[in-house]
Amino acid sequence: MVSVTSLPCARATSASRGLAHLRRAACGLALASLSACGKTHDATPRDVALQFYVTLEVAGVRSLPESRALPALEPYLTADLTRALAAPPAPGVDAGNVFSGLYEGHTSYVVHEAQLDGDTARVRLDFTNIDQQPAVQWTDTLVLVRQAPSWRVHDLRYGANWDFGYRGSLRAVLTCLTGPDAASCRGGTSATPPAPATNTR
Q: Which of 66, 87, 103, 168 has the most C-beta neighbours closer than 10 Å?
């Protein structure tokens, strides 16, 4: 288990947002310290999950990634998830933070050891948002697949059940956001997510 509450980039309280450039610089140092284990062929699924979420913070991604930020995330993603994230949402839709079950996102998280099933890994993420009053906690699950030479993020399964959060899976939400019912994606997305891609080795 790896707790990321101590990383400066893991907390995004309203007071710290005014120092975003300092936070991102600190995140860059944290990311550099992880690169030795995260961007190598022997990186574990937990390594990849941790680096992915730190990279989201470094790139300033708090909603659907903009085109300038997507290249930083691409090394951690399967090709089809990259394409899904690149697709523009329906006009006028504010997606919020799609990388956690809470629209407003998280202020800290804990990354647990992966559960392996062949070429699929599931990494439990315990999220907290202390900007909400009272503070809220929930658990989502990152799904990774082994695609030689590394593990790639394939999906995120949302574990929260509040009225205005995301439910189901990231991939189902991305499909919803580009469709005619995009305004109702939060709180009701329960489509069955596609199975992980098969190993390409």
A: 168
